[in-house]
Design a protein that fits this description.
103 residues, alpha/beta, Oxidized Rhodanese, domain 1, five-stranded parallel β-sheet
């Protein structure tokens, strides 16, 4: 089961200490700046799974929310993650709802 959140919920999760992971490739824009934020491109996930903790809230986003939803489902099903949250609408919605975090 995929857990989803809306872009406007991100500040609440930041306050709780969530890790935020951008799974877009490095050339994709726009960029966002959040505390506890990192870029782990989908193309590198297999080699960087150790950077995605299995405890605490971990928000995953991409451009539209499709790749991140697929990744959350895959990590839940095949790697036992239960703490991942997909950001619905990805950077499209984040640009609208959280413009102050946009670089």
């Amino acid at each position: 089961m995929i857990k989803n959140i809306q872009a406007e919920e991100i500040p609440h999760y930041i306050e709780k200490g969530a890790l935020i992971i951008d799974i877009r490739e490095s050339y994709e824009t726009p960029k966002f700046q959040f505390p506890s934020h990192k870029n782990v491109p989908t193309s590198e996930i297999g080699d960087r799974l150790d950077e995605i903790p299995k405890t605490g809230d971990v928000l995953i986003y991409c451009h539209s929310g499709a790749r991140s939803a697929d990744l959350v489902a895959t990590l839940n099903l095949h790697y036992g993650y239960e703490n991942l949250l997909n950001v619905i609408g990805g950077t499209i919605m984040m640009s609208l709802k959280l413009p102050e975090h946009k670089l």
